[in-house]
Design a protein that fits this description.
Length: about 190
């Protein structure tokens, strides 16, 4: 009976170790395409110097890391992506009630698929922003229903990817499962 308990504990520990955790996703070479309430024309990218022109809803990361990559055409929000997967969303002026839904598509420019999109700091708002993953290369942000605490407030989120477990973890899982099966079989035959 003791052997079974020890083996079950080892299997559970191996399973816990083997769980993939989200790590920040590098956006270093990302090329981003954005939409605002379903419209590409209502997002202005840094690569186009925030001019409202065809294709202005695309941008790469600001190489100087001194400003935002995107502004909404109504100037309500700015979006600053960092190479470490951090997204800071700035409120530029009082935000009236309304729908404020954005998508950011990174296409094949990411080193891994997006598996997490989490809020790091929402203290500048009452309510929770909607942060979701559309697919492995696209995120969605819903800022409707938030009450901002003042002009130039900011909320921060992190885009992440699953860590790959260490090569020894699958071997440990298999060994533990085999040991557990063996001990249960031995217990039943007694």
């Amino acid at each position: 009976m003791k052997t079974t308990t020890i083996l079950e504990t080892l299997v559970l520990a191996a399973l816990a170790i083997g769980q993939a955790q989200a790590a920040p996703l590098s956006l270093q070479d990302a090329h981003i395409t954005a939409t605002y309430n379903g419209s590409a024309a209502d997002v202005l990218g840094l690569d186009h110097l925030f001019a409202q022109e065809p294709g202005s809803n695309t941008s790469t990361l600001d190489p100087t890391n001194s400003g935002v990559e995107f502004l909404t055409a109504d100037a309500l929000f700015g979006f600053d992506f960092a190479a470490d997967g951090t997204l800071v969303i700035y409120e530029n002026m009082p935000v009236p009630a309304g729908d404020y839904k954005l998508t950011f598509d990174f296409r094949a420019t990411l080193p891994a698929a997006i598996t997490s999109f989490t809020l790091l700091d929402g203290s500048a708002v009452d309510g929770l922003p909607g942060l979701s993953i559309v697919d492995g290369h696209t995120i969605a942000v819903d800022l409707g229903g938030l009450a901002w605490h003042g002009d130039f407030g900011a909320i921060t989120a992190r885009i992440g990817a699953a860590d790959v477990p260490e090569p020894a973890v699958p071997a440990l899982l298999l060994a533990g499962a085999a040991g557990l099966a063996f001990s249960r079989r031995r217990t039943r035959s007694n």
